[in-house]
Write a structure and sequence with these properties.
29 strands; about 650 residues; about 35% helix; 7-stranded mixed β-sheet; GMP Synthetase, Chain A, domain 3; hypothetical protein tt1634; alpha/beta
């Protein structure tokens, strides 16, 4: 009895072991088949039918005769996309041909917060060690992964220029993918905002080599809108948006069409962003805008799924009930509608307390009106000084009793809204907050409406009359390269850059002029400038050339000392070779002793195929043409 039980148990374990071996073998075959078939399928898609694929466990073997070294490398790359590259075993041969076609040299440079990766095929004559060392210096403490292969074939001269441009571009891109070929560089990166996207595109479009085509794709993420806001008004028969948000281009189009049908005549912007409470946002917004149009006036405010509709004072109650009832029935279930019909104004109404904050064009802030306590007055004063400059805030607010309990929140929210303006005012009353003024932000109306709806509640009443002014826009207000050079030329017409006699040292007056020129250049961004030094004909020609170069470099050093970005500047000494006046008089010699600032521009391409700049999305777009060169004339003293 005991012996039979032991045999039964042993038999069970033996059977289980056999089943495990069978299952393991089956699993291995499944893994091998999947790896083999997946790699085979991907290679066939790429037209690499000459390869032979086999699998043994986790390893994948590639065999066959590759037409070229580049094709062999491409096959390894394709297989590495399917399985781990470390599992790919290369057993391929290269076709033996007397006239082997040169490979296509290319490099992928990938950069993120973890480091820089280099992938591709480069020419053997390229100084690989120096290039990798430059990448390591740029990466700092991050890791540089070198996966480059080299081949000994001739390469076009444009390869070196493309590499140089790619390295310069990588220096200002903390996260990017840069693809480099001989004569072409493709850059894919992202910016934190639309404003920074514009600045980055402008920077990358400068200093493009004439024989290199550059494709730039800078994406800016959609803004996260919270609360998701929409506010449409009809006042004095004029329809407008204070804020418009949409989740898709289709919803944006639907909202704008509804607004035009309700009487909107001016152009309006509707921001596409993230944070929509429901996919039916566009439908609900269009219905509410239509209701305001039917009422003939009033406002509708969306804060996420809460809707507040306020009819114009004097609206007939029967009409109000009919329109609001229909809107309430048509709205999607997720939305909650709060409709208000204002009562007619009563005669002899009491004086309404208010708080007023004004912001002058010079940045001065004045606070006046009523606050509920001394503590609130101190809080308002501190908040304003933290938001604006401490020395720019003048508080005249008076402590008064009997103000509403929500008065502190209304006042502080009004001050926060004032921060979106370049100049203007905010008026706070128990029933309304009014924001008026000018701004350099195109989306300020939407941001202010979202802030007030979030802080004061969806049913709060507020009026926004904020106009966009391009002069206040930090991006649109940037001077063009020509304007920069014209401003420098104007300074040099009035004052000379002087040096100590016979030396390259700026005198006291020269230092003062450099301060003003540095102020201009610090606002111009990265432009290519040549600083040329010139002398009169007195003295030996070699000495004059050395002196002019020393003075040009002294100007360059003076700009660096004033924290001007000079990486795109060059200093050249021309000596006496380019006079602008005769050297036979003191006046002529004085004119010839000068410093000139010259704007360097890339030569415009004659047609699309020779363009130095193209778009990733539309390869046919023409290259941006660098503005015309404008020279600023300057002077110096021997």
């Amino acid at each position: 009895m005991r012996l039979s039980a032991i045999f039964a148990i042993a038999g069970t374990f033996l059977l289980a072991g056999v089943l495990c071996l069978v299952a393991a073998g089956f699993s291995v075959r499944v893994i091998e088949d999947n790896a083999r078939n997946s790699v085979r399928s991907e290679l066939d898609k790429e037209g690499m039918t000459w390869t032979e694929v086999d699998a043994d466990g986790l390893q994948v073997f590639l065999a066959g005769v590759a037409p070229s070294e580049a094709k062999r490398f491409a096959a390894l790359t394709v297989a590495g996309r399917i399985v781990d590259a470390a599992r790919v075993i290369d057993q391929m041969l290269i076709e033996d041909t007397a006239e082997m076609a040169p490979p296509r040299f290319s490099m992928e440079i990938l950069r993120n917060d973890h480091g820089i990766s280099l992938i591709g095929l480069i020419p053997a004559q390229m100084d690989r060690d120096a290039f990798v060392a430059e990448m390591e210096e740029m990466a700092g403490d991050a890791e540089v992964t070198d996966l480059l292969e080299a081949a000994d074939y001739p390469v076009a001269d444009s390869w070196n220029e493309a590499i140089s441009y790619a390295v310069r571009a990588l220096g200002q891109l903390p996260r990017a993918k840069i693809s480099v070929d001989a004569g072409r560089v493709a850059i894919t990166t992202m910016a934190d905002s639309p404003e920074k996207k514009v600045l980055l595109e402008q920077s990358l479009q400068r200093r493009v080599p004439s024989n290199v085509r550059v494709a730039v794709n800078v994406s800016a993420p959609r803004p996260v809108i919270t609360p998701f806001t929409l506010r449409f008004l009809i006042e004095d028969d004029v329809a407008r948006f204070d804020a418009c948000s949409a989740d898709t281009p289709q919803a944006q189009k639907r909202l704008l069409e509804a607004a035009r049908a309700a009487g909107l005549e001016d152009d309006a912007e509707c921001v596409i962003g993230l944070g929509v409470p429901t996919p039916e946002w566009g439908k609900a917004g269009a219905l509410a805008i239509k209701a305001i149009g039917e009422l003939g006036g009033g406002s509708v405010t969306f804060a996420d799924a809460d809707i507040t509709l306020v009819a114009a004072q004097g609206t007939a109650e029967a009409k109000f009930d009919d329109v609001v009832g229909g809107l309430n029935s048509d709205l999607p279930d997720v939305f909650a509608l709060h409709a208000v019909l204002p009562q007619p104004e009563a005669e002899g109404a009491p004086v309404i307390p208010d708080f007023v904050a004004t912001l002058s064009p010079e940045g001065l802030v004045q606070l006046r009106g009523k606050v509920g306590s001394q503590r609130l007055r101190d809080t308002v004063d501190s908040f304003a000084k933290a938001r604006f400059r401490s020395d720019a805030v003048y508080t005249r607010a008076r402590v008064a009793e009997g103000l509403p309990a929500e008065w502190p929140m209304r006042v502080l929210t009004g001050l926060e809204a004032l921060g979106f303006l370049g100049q203007g005012a905010v008026v706070v009353t128990p029933d309304n907050v009014t924001v008026t003024g000018m701004t350099g932000r195109k989306e300020a109306n939407a941001q202010i409406a979202g802030l007030l709806a979030e802080k004061l509640g969806a049913s709060a009443q507020f009026d926004i009359d904020v106009q966009y002014q391009e002069a206040l826009d930090p991006v649109a207000g940037l001077p063009t390269p020509e304007e920069c050079m014209a401003q420098i030329a104007q300074i040099q017409e009035e004052r000379k850059i002087n040096f100590e006699p016979g030396s390259g040292t700026l005198d006291g007056n020269g230092a003062s002029v450099m301060n003003d020129i540095a102020d201009i250049l610090s606002k111009c961004g990265e432009i290519q400038i040549e600083i040329g030094g010139h002398t009169d004909s007195q003295g030996r020609e070699e000495m004059n050339e050395e002196l002019s170069e020393a003075r040009a470099n002294a100007v360059l050093d003076a700009l660096r000392a004033r924290r001007v970005l000079t990486s795109s500047y060059s200093a050249v000494g021309y000596g006496e070779s380019q006079p602008i006046a005769g050297n036979d008089t003191e006046e002529g010699r004085e004119a010839n002793r000068r410093i000139e600032f010259t704007l360097i521009e890339a030569e415009p391409a004659p047609d699309l195929e020779d363009s130095g700049l193209e778009s990733l999305e539309e390869e046919g777009q023409e290259e941006s043409v660098t503005p015309e060169e404008e020279e600023g004339s300057g002077d110096e003293q021997n």
